Amino acid sequence: MINDFSKFYTFMEIVKERSFSKASRALGISQPAVTLQMKKLEEMLQTTLIMRKKNGIVLTHEGEKFYKLCTQFESAMFRFKDELARIKTDKVPLVIATTQLIAEAVISILLDKISQSVGSELDIRIKEQNELINYLKDRRSDIAIILEQSLDSSLLVKKLFDYELILVSNKKIAESVKPEELVKFKFIKDRTRTYLDDILHKHGVDAHALDVAYSLDGSIMVCRALASNHADTYVAFLPRFLIENELKNGRLFEINISKFKLTRSVYAAALKENEEALHKFLKIKTSFNF
């Protein structure tokens, strides 16, 4: 009978780090202790889970199946802890999961309005875009604010607001350009916005032909890099709502692209059982005036 779940977490950390030594550092225990835990786990399950290789580790077929079970177990434990916390307190916070961009640039300035609308305290959790739906379906959040439409039939998904993605520079260079002139600029690129390549292609611009000085993860990092580095003239595509202040105070400069306008949508999603919470949350839609 399994009564020591620490071995599960050790196994998951090894898989995550792809290394016994890195897992030992992450867990704060010695490498021999990690090896011993894995040995006992494999003896208990009577199978081999991991094969050591020169360049890391490889999961066996049984290891792949066991890792999937472990991730399900981890999700269940998170749900258990959340529900336990709710039992302990009379005030049950509404858990909202979203990306760092939306949390910092949007949710943070509307906390009071959201709290008043839903009638509870808030617990804001930052996740990667590709984690949000599973996080919601695992019931680890009540509402997820997502940057892409979801067609999952188990969810209620409502548009929250539209926003414009614009081209800006760190130095004043031109008020407007043609799409084909984009190849003249040095870009700071947000590598998470992969859809931009297709949109540029539709306007006759080969994204691979652009001069990319830096590739970064996320609009917030791109915004900070663009506003802080002046050794050269750089441009970037950024959400207008993120850079309103920078445009007003002259730290960044908008460049209009002729016959080119890029609008994206942000959605609020919830499980059908949380329809009431989603309905209350959507009452503040007019506050998202981007």
Automatic annotation (TrEMBL):
GO MF annotation terms: DNA-binding transcription factor activity; transcription cis-regulatory region binding
InterPro entries found in the cross-reference section: LysR_HTH_N, LysR_subst-bd, WH-like_DNA-bd_sf, WH_DNA-bd_sf
Superkingdom per UniProt: Bacteria
UniProt-listed Pfam families: HTH_1 (PF00126), LysR_substrate (PF03466)
PROSITE patterns per UniProt: HTH_LYSR
Gene3D superfamilies xref list: Periplasmic binding protein-like II (3.40.190.10), Winged helix-like DNA-binding domain superfamily/Winged helix DNA-binding domain (1.10.10.10)
Keywords, alphabetical: DNA-binding, Transcription, Transcription regulation
Mitochondrion recorded as keyword: no
Residue span, HTH lysR-type domain: 1-60
PANTHER family (alphabetical): HTH-TYPE TRANSCRIPTIONAL REGULATOR (PTHR30126), HTH-TYPE TRANSCRIPTIONAL REGULATOR CITR (PTHR30126:SF64)
Family: Belongs to the LysR transcriptional regulatory family.
Name recorded for this polypeptide: LysR family transcriptional regulator
Organism, as annotated: Campylobacter massiliensis
